[in-house]
Each structure stands twice: as structure tokens, then as C-alpha cells.
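can u pls check wat happens w/ S-adenosyl-L-homocysteine
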Amino acid sequence: MNNDNKLTDLKNYSLTEIQEYIKNLGDQPFRGKQIFNWIFENYADDFDELTNIPISLRDKLKDVAKLRSLKLLSKSSSSSTATVKYLLETDDGKKIESVIIPEKERRTLCISTQVGCPLDCKFCATGLMGYTRNLTVAEILDQYLITSKEVLPNTITNIVFMGMGEPLLNYAATEKVLKILLQDLGNKIGRTRITVSTAGIPKKIIELADSGLRVKLALSLHSCFDEIRDKIMPINLKYNLQENIDALKHYSRKTKTKIMFEYTMLKGINDREEDLDALKKLCSQLPSKVNIIPFNSIAHMVNGGFSSTLEPTPFDEVKRFYERLISKDIFVALRNTQGDDIAAACGQLAIKEN
Ligand code: SAH
């Protein structure tokens, strides 16, 4: 626990709100833009770095505000890939993770939106941690700023909301982060390079569609059958596939983007002949692409229960499944597992002591 907890992180505010805040402190609003630039262009984390801001204003700010809500605790690098996992701590002592995944001409940042996750998907390590709380706007943005400062500055090209938590259950913060990134920051990372991933919260999919932000949206699909989805993703009992597909059709129409279906291959559960046919039928309903993800084992984290029965589809069968989808004229990609040796691959993010 830390006293910084009582201070307001200025990154919870949009640019206009920071300007308003500075005005209320009795100073000129243009200082707000200067401060915003220090935060987002120079990754400043201490008011003393803000050399073009008068010392009197810096002193005033130090009493009421802060520029960091997360502390970098450690970094682990994968030996087999260039993936790096960042362990970060909030001011109230919660731990979260972010991952940087370098690929050929991209450097993708995978960020968390919650401490833990309430959804309890049976194949996901984060689900096993349970849920603690939503992250604030500042805590979500800090993941971007801290990792940006760590890697070569300004080289993060893509952001995926695929870390811990369900972004659409922390909707207000997620939407505000997207607005700050896309509108205030002036498209440094464009909307086509940002993907929000959801397990399927139809009302919020519609809200995001109507927000005008037009980022890419991914649905963690994993099965086209409700009875299977009910078992592996309990959220499906509340919002079934058809409700999600209807919302996704609206999303795709409104934003003119393709929906990405994430599909983690689970042996005997979603890798059968009827799964290929069902995927074909689903994809013919809306502009979409399937992203095949090899299942990253979480067996080391579970003792018994349904989760411990889940096994990856062997990789040669994953490849065959992928090729069969191509032959059915479905847009499909096969994602390489990145960073499973440091538990930074999809669904492996979990903090034991939280
Ligand atoms: N809550 C959001 C975002 C977090 S999960 C969502 O559900 O989409 C990010 C992606 O990793 C999702 O597609 C999720 O289904 C997938 N995933 C989770 N556990 C996995 C595992 N053990 N192996 C492979 N992918 C996994």
C-alpha cells in the first residue's frame, strides 16, 4: 500500500479534462496540452521532468496529482521467442501483467483491463485467479506508457486487449482509453491496429459499435455450439451465441470491419468434422476471419476438475484443421504460440499471490 493511492492520476482524464483541471488549479489551459505531451510523448512519470511547466504549478500538482499508477516489478523474456512479459503493481498492491510480442514488422502490446477475471473460462489461467477489481483508465494506459518507455520508444505498433480480464465488463474505462489513444493522441496507433477481444457481452458490443471508435473486435468463440460453449465458457449461459452473433453483425455493419473469431483448439471438444462445418456456416453470416490458436496448457495450475481434462489438439491436427478451413474458403490465420516458456502466451497470464 502506498500514499500515492490518494493522488489523482492525470491519465484518468482526457486532454480536455486535463485542460479543465489545470484551469481549476488557477493556471492556463494550454499547460494542459503541454502536460499531456509530456505524459504521452516523453513518457514522463515525475512532475520534475516537466521542464517547461512553471515550478509553482509543478509543486501544486505534486500535492494533488500523479503521473504513474503502476510500478514495474519485473520483466521476463522468452528464450525461444522475443516475447517479453512485464509484471506490474498497482498502488494498492495488486499485480497485473502485460506482454510485448515482437513479430516481423510489428510490435504488439497485449494489455490487461482487470485484476483477475470474473468469467471463469475453463481453459484460461486468469479465470482461475478469480476477480479482484477493474483497472482504471490510468492503470490501463500505464501499461502502454511503461512498456513503451522500456522498449525502443515509439515502436509499439499494435495494441490488443487480450491480457487479463474482460474489457467489455470494464467498458467505461476501455472506451475512454480508446478515445484517449485514438482522438487525443492523434492516431499514433491507428484504429485498425487496436483489437478489443471479448468473450461475448452483446449489449456492450453494440455500445462499442455505436461509439464511433471503429476498432477491430475479436470474439473468443472456441465453439459454434452453445452446449459446448456453456461448458467451457460459463458466460455463454447468460449471453448465448445467437445474441452475440446478432451484436457482431451490427458491429461489422456499423464499423465496416471484419470480426475476428478466436478459436483455441481443444482436443475432442472443438476440432471435429462438425466443428469445421459449423465454422463454415457461421463465417458465411458476416464478414469475419478465424484465428486458430494452439491451446496453451494450464495443467500446471489446476488440481482436478473439468479444466484439468482439457488437452491441446496435437499440432499436426491443428494444421490440418487450418488447411481444411482454407479449403472451405474461410479467411483463417494460424497463430503461433508466443512465449509459453514464460507463461506469457494466451490464457496463461495469472498471478499466484494476488
Ligand atoms: N476476456 C477477453 C480477453 C482475454 S483472453 C476474451 O475472452 O476474449 C484473450 C484470448 O486468449 C481469448 O481468445 C482467450 O479465449 C484466449 N485464451 C485463453 N486461455 C487460453 C489458453 N489456455 N490457450 C490459448 N488461448 C487462450
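The chain has two domains: 4-66, 70-342.
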